Amino acid sequence: MLGLVLILTGLGFLGYVGWQYYGTNIVAERNQAEVKEQIVEDWGQQIDGAAIGLLRVPRFGDDFEVPINESFSDEALTSGVGSYEKGADAGQLGNFVIAGHRVTRGEPFRDFLELEPGDIVEVETRTHLYIYEMRTNGRDITVDFTTSWPLFPVPDPDQRGAEPTEHLLTMLTCSELFHTRDRQVAIGVLVEEREKPVPQAEAAAAPAS
User: Fold this and answer.
1) Active site residue: 101, 128, 167, 179, which one?
2) Is 128 labeled as catalytic in the residue annotation?
C-alpha cells in the first residue's frame, strides 16, 4: 500500500513539473497570440486596454515579439511581459520597467543572459516606436527579489529620490531557471523615437483644417 502511495505521489509530482515547464508554455503562447491580435485591433479603434504595446528584442530572435502588459500580476506575466505601473511610460522621462519569465509561462526572457551592451530593444505603442540601446548586459547585475532600486526613476542604488534626466528602460527576470530569490537586471537608454503614421480610419475621421 505504501509503495502504491509513493508511486502515485511520484507521478503526481512529475505531472506537476511537466505542467509547469511545458503546459504553462503552451497556455502562455496561446495567451500571447490572443493579446497581440487584440492589441492591433484596439490600436485600429483607438481603444486603451491592459496591454500597452509590443516588445521586440533582435538578440532574442528575428521573430521575437511579445505583448507588454500593464502590471506585474500573474495574468500579465502569463500573456507576455509585465510593466511596472508606478514607473514611467514607454519612451518617457524616467524609468520604464518591464519583467518577464525565463522559464515557464512562455519564457519570453529565456535568453536574457545573452543581452549585451549595444543591443537594441524596440517598444511599439499605438502611436510610437521607441528604440532603446542596452548599456549593460544580462549577466552582471544580480539583486535579491526584495531590492527596490531597479524600480527607481533613476535605477541606481545610490540615487533614491533623484530626479530623472534620462529616458531609461530596465528589464528584470529570474537569475536561475529554477526557483530563486535572485533577479537579473539590465538597463538601456532611449536612442530614437518614431511617431507612427496615423491610421487611415483615424485620419478620415479627423476634421478638415
Assistant:
1) 101
2) no
8 A C-beta contact, residue 82 and residue 71: yes
Three-state secondary structure string covering 147-167: CCHHHCCCCCCCCCCCCCCCE
Written as one letter, the residue type at 137 is: N
User: Please, which pLDDT band fits residue 2 given cuts at 50, 70 and 90?
Assistant: low
Quick check: 76 pLDDT over 70? Answer: yes
Label the pairing between strands 94-99 and 167-174: parallel
Predicted pLDDT of residue 15:
45
By CB atoms closer than 10 A (0-12, 13-18, 19+), residue 89 is middle
179 is catalytic: no
Beta strands in 9-72 (DSSP E): 51-56, 66-70
Q: Around Cβ 182, how many Cβ atoms within 10 Å?
A: 12
- pTM of this structure: 0.76
Distance, in Å, from the CA atom of 88 to the CA atom of 96, rounded to the nearest integer, reads 5
Q: Is 197 helix (H, G, I), strand (E, B) or coil?
A: coil
pLDDT of 17: 43
Given the residues 128, 167, 174, 179, select the one marked as catalytic.
174
Mean pLDDT rounded to a whole number for the chain = 82
Domains of the chain in sequence order: 1-195 (2.40.260.10)
